[in-house]
Amino acid sequence: MEDFSFIQITDHHLLESEDALRDGFCPGHAFRMVMRDITQNVADKVDFIISTGDLVEPETDANYQGAIKLLGINSSAALPGPQHINIEGLKNFPFYFLPGNHDDRALVTKYLFSESKAPKLYNFTFKHKDVQFIFMDWGPKSKAYLFPETKEFLTKALQADTPSVIVCHQHVKKIGSKWLDAFLADNLSEFWEVVLPQKEKILAILSGHVHITYEDEYAGIPLLGLRSTAYPFAKADEPVVILAEPHYRYVYIHDGVLTSRIYKVNI
User: Fold this and answer.
1) Which residue, 43, 67, 69, 265, has most beta carbons within 10 Å?
2) pTM of the predicted model over 0.85
């Protein structure tokens, strides 16, 4: 297997203009600073960027238009991508995107993947250097749900005889926050019934949604969560937004083993 690396970013909550404010905070500026840091530190080492959801909030045409302008997307693409972004020195840089609960699947497809018809759920796979990436969609609500079609898709995808990385928006194990853990799927056990028999194939599960960076495991499967590029949450039982640096995750796959490093970005 050929070694490679990629970047994970998540939960951008962009608005219709780069300088627009949400409760006094500027998601567009923070996103640009993250992309600048990626360019300065790791862009020459990675093959692509994956965003694990919530590109905008709310999910309006104006906000998606603003996000496309900020990303510098000027070409069409088909699902699952990649699209190509142009921002802060990243030129036609491969970019994969999985919608979150604040994303409208039809509008995401319209603006990022105009060569495709909008699916109900973003369940896709792609292979990169002998590693399968499984993009699975927990649905458009804050509370996750394992849809029958997603369960069927995941079962089939994990039959492939190749190492796999599962990529999703909502988290898959309690992190220790009552309000955030209430968003876990009520039928989460069905997910693990599919995944655990194939756990030797799974290099990691990447997710966003909770705006908190963590590294955990379930039955030996690494679970990697990530702080938002917009506004982080505290690991508290009630919603608490904190002032802290945005994060991105540098992921390296070497000899079939996945490791990662967190970069903090001063804004």
Assistant:
1) 67
2) yes
Tell the residue number behind the tokens 């290099």, with chain if given. Answer: 203
SS3 197: helix
Q: What is the pLDDT of residues 118-138, one digit of tens each?
A: 999 999 999 999 999 999 999
Distance CA 95, CA 71 (A): 10
Q: Which domain holds residue 103?
A: 4-264
The two three-digit tokens of residue 130, written as one number: 């002998």
Nearest Cα residue to 125 out of 166, 161, 95: 166
CA 247, CA 13: separation in Å to the nearest integer?
15
263: tokens are 């970069």
Pairing relation of β-strands 202-206 and 221-225? parallel
Q: Using CA atoms, how far apart are residues 28 and 239, in angstroms rounded to an integer?
A: 22
- The count of domains in the chain is 1
> Which tokens sit at 213?
């960076």
CB 231 within 8 A of CB 246: no
Q: Is the pLDDT of residue 23 over 90?
A: no
Q: How many Cβ atoms from other residues are within 10 Å of residue 3's Cβ?
A: 11
pLDDT at 213 over 90: yes
Strands of 98-197, DSSP E: 124-128, 131-135, 164-167
At CB < 8 A and 24+ separation, what contacts does 22-27 make?
22/57, 22/230, 22/231, 23/241, 25/230, 25/231, 27/229, 27/230, 27/231
CATH number of 180's domain: 3.60.21.10
* CA distances in angstroms from 134 to 61, 78, 137, 241, listed in the order given: 28, 17, 10, 31
- The rounded distance, in Å, linking the Cα atoms of 256 and 42 is 21
Q: In the chain, how many H helices and how many E strands?
A: 6, 12
